[in-house]
């Protein structure tokens, strides 16, 4: 409580005590599974292991926005990895998945900093039941796992009807040549009537970058193009995707990878909670002597709650002796050339979202005052209950956690009494004009809703705390 008050006091003291409409969201996701893999290595040995992110990537991050006026908003996002196997973050950096800042408005959105590649966003959206054991393993096997673009300037155009277009340029940061180590990527998405979605994306990565500095800091020239169509018809979703990738070697003198990828996929919703799906991906290596590799994935998912899910996944990789080798499951084993590998995994995932919103015109000093008054009021109520239990042996139950979670207050017209006391209660209405609502951070469950939001549509009796 003291930490919250200090933080609010600092915010109130810095410049104006009034904040523009803004929000900061802490979000994350964890995904773990127990996986068994047949022919996990060249010795054809099997493996049972705990796998991280086999369906959805385990992440954590913060994003936020602020109303700048005139229809413009300031935006930011930082995002990193976390492994459920050992709790470690990626060695590539704390926020290796995203670290950018920018502005948005009627002109679209313009950001500067590390951001996900539009090609990868399109590849993810093209999936029917997105799973890292298809989405990521395919990208890695076919040589286009260029997930995050360093030194990126990213522009997302305002919607052209229903269509969305995004363009990204990752700078090489190399003197003497703007194109050295640079990345150019663009994507387009168009939903059509009848549940049809069209997608296209392209990237060009240029040779000559500096390791650890340039957007394309390793390898030669690369060109990747992707086209996809997806349709949803009631409980059924179907998709067909085509991707072509060409990559030169580290000295940029010859092709190292040339592959055509074709994928067909479908899913069926058995209920609101349960979905099943399958995908078949074929990699056709185009260099001399290369054969075809296939990856088949079967999934079943069950939604336990809006934030928790479980899944059963089966992966089957039939790898060519020469050419592309793909893993049947992400993060556990690699693909083994000339082997038919199978993997079965049973796992669960959990989403986390915590948001703190501050509406326009809220005096943060009043928020601190309400929260402190609510804490004092709750303490007095608990003390009153304890006294009642002691008197004549009366059995008065402790204050229930759900009531503790709702203790808060509102300032505004009609809510501060003439003697200066703050109205506090359980189950507060939407604030009247100029009013605000706040609760006790850290109390069981927290206050439902954010500062300034509706809490409940009824009152359950009021407490009062002397104005400080």
Short description, anyone?
This protein has 468 residues and is mostly beta strands. It has 5 helices and 24 strands. The protein has helices at residues 2-13, 118-126, 132-142, 364-390, 401-404, and strands spanning 18-19, 22-38, 47-52, 59-69, 72-81, 98-105, 108-116, 148-149, 152-156, 164-170, 183-192, 196-205, 222-233, 236-248, 255-269, 274-285, 292-305, 308-318, 340-358, 362-363, 407-411, 422-426, 436-439, 462-465.
CATH A-level architecture of the largest domain: Beta Barrel
Instruction: Evaluate the radius of gyration.
Output: 27 Å
**What is the CATH top level name of the largest domain?**
Mainly Beta
User: Largest sheet, order of strands side by side?
Assistant: 2-4-5-6-7-9-10-11-12-13-14-15-16-17-18-19
CATH homologous superfamily placement of the largest domain:
Porin
Total count of helical runs of at least 4 residues: 5
What would you call the shape? globular
Domain module count: 2
Describe it for me?
This protein is mainly β and 468 residues long. It has 5 helices and 24 strands. The strands form 3 sheets. Strands 2-4-5-6-7-9-10-11-12-13-14-15-16-17-18-19 form a 16-stranded antiparallel beta barrel. A hairpin with a 7-residue loop joins β9 and β10. The protein starts with a helix and ends with a strand.
List keywords for this structure.
4-stranded antiparallel β-sheet; single chain; mainly beta; Porin; disordered C terminus; 46% strand; 16-stranded antiparallel β-barrel; 468 residues; disordered N terminus; 5 helices
